[in-house]
């Protein structure tokens, strides 16, 4: 098996230098394998990191489990691992291709779970093209004595999560189900963190819309935040049903004690979903307010144009009459006739201008 052979060669090289296996950018066990660790009674068992040997030791001892972490494996690579762990044939295709929605599926005595991961993209200034939310995917195969996690995307490293679990041996001793709960809890916590961060962008566009110097270009930023919020909702909302299944329905590997933990995660997910729904409604209100402001501004512009057109119409009318070159016109041959007409035009324009100013048209 090419993957197993590459793992053994990489492990032999790792003896000559210290390597941080939990770091997402380093993969000494192969091109996609990030980590391979055996846990027994909640404690990490240090060994040579060989996947085949780790699984054999766990099954020979009859207790403990092996946790293998991968990052974007190719189908040929994962085929070897699937054969080693006896995964269902459909699992190979599911592991290497991204899924449109989170889900939980049962393959014999194994659970297959898909979570959508999210990450807030920091930006110096919110624009109409700013990326706010980046999404990825976390896949977990959970059996009686193994956990296989697969990440898709450039974020969502599980190194800190693994360290937190290792710091709580009592929880980790509950087996692979405890790892699945920790994964779900980690993903939902990220939902809450990103949701809180997005609130800051919503406040930015809200303040811009209701500020005195708000511009008509704010619509682009509102649509961008709404589009990114929609992407976040697509990751968060569909997870409700899978978590409900894990919390209430009998599942392989998941005991009654762990189901109570999943109910707590489901409560957190409900909070995130409610926040996103409220933010979406708020953005709709902000957009409607912005469009109303644009309409009012356009009406004010039209009133100003109409007022100036009315003022200009007076000299246009008078000059048009005198431009007909009739011989018998009022005061035509009078010395002060021309200044008198100009004075009448100026007085009429002043009166109309003052009336428009008084009515708020100018």
UniProtKB/TrEMBL annotation:
Gene3D superfamilies: CorA soluble domain-like, Magnesium transport protein CorA, transmembrane region. InterPro entries: CorA_cytoplasmic_dom, CorA_TM1_TM2, MgTranspt_CorA/ZnTranspt_ZntB. The chain crosses the membrane at residues 305-324, 336-356. It is a multi-pass membrane protein. Its main location: membrane. Keywords: Cell membrane, Membrane, Transmembrane, Transmembrane helix, Transport. The keyword Transmembrane helix applies. Pfam families: CorA. Coiled coil: none annotated. It is found in: Cell membrane. Signal peptide: none annotated. Belongs to the CorA metal ion transporter (MIT) (TC 1.A.35) family. This is Magnesium and cobalt transport protein CorA.
